[in-house]
Amino acid sequence: MMNRTLVLIGCVLASLGLRAQERNRLPDVSATVKGELTLPVPVGTPLFASITESIGQLGVVYQHPVYKGLGLGVGGGMSWFGLEERALAPIVTTGEVRRSRAFGKVAYERYTTARSFYELSLRAGLSFYRFDCPTCEDEPAQAFHWGVGSAYYLHATENLAFGLTLGYEQDMRRFAAGDLGLSSFPGRKEVEEAGSSGYLIVGLSFSTRLRASPDSDRGW
After folding, report:
1. CATH code, domain carrying 196
2. Is the pLDDT of residue 202 over 90?
């Protein structure tokens, strides 16, 4: 009886040990495609913030691991802003601002549990502004673009995770009345922002790992 009890206790302890080892084995970082649905909130640009309203921002990135969670990526995105009808009336009563981006990315990813991980990133590239209104010119405006970001993800399946993202982006250009084809803003003395265009980025994101998955009979 005593021998059977000792054997049973040993089996239970061995099982607990194996489960603890499995919990300690965190998933590795793999190649991913990441997407974002965010809201760009103008920061430090009172003229732009008072004349436009943020509609939304989309982005997509391909990212590949390089060394111990460090990865490189390339991506792009588009932002939309609507012109406030009352801010520029009666000169401009309708229009929008479209901002496209193309950038390279350096990121660090780390799993905190088997089903969750975080990411810290740095981006740099180019932004292109197109101002669409009755008085606007057709030529897009180009600027150097950079940004920092963070995100926290939870896996819904083996390869698909959803998360929250928070970041800051800046384009090295100043918004001015000339962007809208105007010599001045109605009711304002300022004709140009004092600083570069900056945005607080907050929203949702997803991450898809590009590798075989045991969750699916098809292997993905």
Report:
1. 2.40.160.20
2. yes
pLDDT at 11: 53
- CA 180 – CA 130 distance, rounded (Å): 10
Interacting residues of 47 by C-beta distance below 8 A, sequence separation 6+: 175, 185, 188, 190, 192, 193
Residue 12 lies in a domain: no
Predicted confidence at residue 139, as pLDDT, reads 82
For the chain, the maximum distance between any two Cα atoms, rounded to a whole number of angstroms, is 96
Do 173 and 131 touch, CB atoms closer than 8 A?
A: no
Domain that includes residue 109, residue range: 34-209
Amino acid at 215: D
Is 19 domain-assigned?
A: no
> DSSP letter string over 12-57?
HHHHHHHHHHHHH-PPPP--EEEEEEEEEEEES-HHHHHHEEEEEE
Q: How far apart are CA 76 and CA 96, in angstroms?
A: 20
In total, how many domains does the chain have? 1
Instruction: Kindly state the average pLDDT of the residues 196-218.
Output: 81
